[in-house]
Write a structure and sequence with these properties.
About 35% of the residues lie in helices and about 20% in strands. The protein is an alpha+beta fold and about 400 residues long. A six-stranded antiparallel sheet has the order 3-4-5-6-8-7, with helices on one face. A hairpin with a 4-residue loop joins strand 5 and strand 6.
């Protein structure tokens, strides 16, 4: 979340679950902090610019409405302070510093470092696109931060452009550690998935446990999007996006923006592998290869059956082979009923955080790939096949 404030952009990270603040806290007191002005809002709550009179410094205050039943209240508070403590113990130059956490009047809050800069969403437009060298350097810094956090036992679970800030001095900051886990605590118990579908790893969508390799997949999505301006897994609906994440390799960046160094494609392909065991096993490995890009381009892209991308030529070849192997279509296709209305394009769903039960998520993803129930003549018709599915580990 960011906005221009007196010629600068103030960022305090993005949030992630559907809890809205009912009233503004501007010009009020929250614990020892004086709330000054709203910076932005997200699905989870509102972020304010504030001051700490004790230490005489500006802070960002992320507020979270405790919108749970009385029976769940103590558990929520326990998880909130546990996650706040986990985030606060992370001391790294590329991680937003958490100063304090508290609770007052049904509002939980986290006081953190106030940043001047742009989150990476700003750099996804053609006019603001970073060079490939700069993309690699920025993502390498994030990988360094993730490696540190993972060694401290903290998984982010919601790595995306909105949670990464590039400061005016070139420093990269990763925000919102622990926020996704805070909201997924109850979700995990009830079989729900939590996150932003475009940046989720396959195991998040299918309800498998997240680990360091989950964050690596999400960071690979960020690298791909920074380099090309396009999301590797996209669709008109959440279900079609989820199907793409689970089943379909991403299109090679070279097919989107022209020739891309082989090493760059190797890194993206390895980080976007569907199976966690085929990805980088830790963020330090990914950072090492990103740093090496400045010195060598000897890394060959992985085969798309193992890695996470494939070229347009490979995609066309696979589809042609599937079409050739299919039975012939009927000579005269059946006419559509006269009363049938013309199909309307589906409304595009925004890039927002989503909470679904795992069965519902899988059902939606499967429905996105499944054809409509055919009539008898249609049943004999061939359908071009989608890319072969990649089995996920049990």
């Amino acid at each position: 979340m960011h906005r221009a404030t007196e010629g600068r952009v103030v960022h305090a990270g993005a949030a992630a679950a559907k809890i809205a603040m009912a009233t503004s806290l501007e010009n009020t007191q929250l614990g020892r902090y004086r709330v000054i002005a709203k910076i932005g809002s997200g699905a989870m709550g509102v972020v304010y610019r504030g001051t700490d009179p004790l230490l005489e410094r500006e802070v960002a205050i992320k507020t979270i409405r405790i919108d749970v039943s009385a029976s769940e209240r103590e558990e929520f508070k326990r998880r909130f302070f546990r996650e706040a403590k986990s985030a606060a113990r992370l001391n790294h130059p590329n991680i937003v510093t958490v100063f304090d956490a508290g609770e007052a009047d049904d509002v939980a809050y986290i006081a953190m470092e106030l940043l001047d800069g742009q989150d990476l969403r700003h750099f996804l437009t053609p006019e603001n696109r970073l060079t490939l060298e700069r993309c690699a350097a920025v993502v390498a810094d994030v990988a360094n931060a993730l490696d540190y956090a993972h060694r401290e036992g903290v998984i982010h679970r919601d790595v995306k452009p909105g949670n990464i800030v590039l400061l005016a001095n070139g420093t990269v900051k990763l925000a919102d550690f622990g926020i996704a886990r805070l909201q997924s605590g109850n979700a995990t118990q009830t079989g729900q998935m939590f996150g932003t579908p475009k940046y989720m790893a396959p195991e998040q969508i299918t309800g498998r446990p997240a680990d360091a390799r989950t964050d690596i997949f999400s960071l690979g999505v960020v690298l791909y999007q920074l380099a090309t301006g396009a999301a590797p897994f996209d669709g008109e609906t959440f279900s079609s996006i989820m199907f793409s994440v689970i089943q379909e390799p991403a299109l090679s960046p070279s097919d989107i923006i022209g020739k891309v160094p082989k090493g760059f494609e190797y890194i993206i392909s390895k980080s976007l592998a569907k199976k966690p065991e085929n990805r980088y096993q830790n963020a330090a490995e990914m950072e090492r290869d990103l740093r090496r890009l400045a010195m060598t381009d000897e890394m060959e892209p992985l085969p798309w059956s193992v890695g996470g991308i494939r070229s347009r030529a490979d995609a066309q070849q696979a589809e042609a082979a599937a079409t050739a192997a299919a039975p012939p279509a009927p000579a005269t296709p059946p006419a559509a009923p006269a009363s049938a209305p013309a199909p309307r394009p589906a409304a595009r769903e925004s890039d927002q955080t989503r909470i679904l039960t795992v069965p519902a998520a899988l059902a939606q993803a499967q429905a996105a790939a499944a054809p409509a129930a055919p009539t008898a003549p249609e049943a004999a018709a061939a359908r071009p096949a989608k890319p072969p599915p990649v089995d996920l580990p049990e």
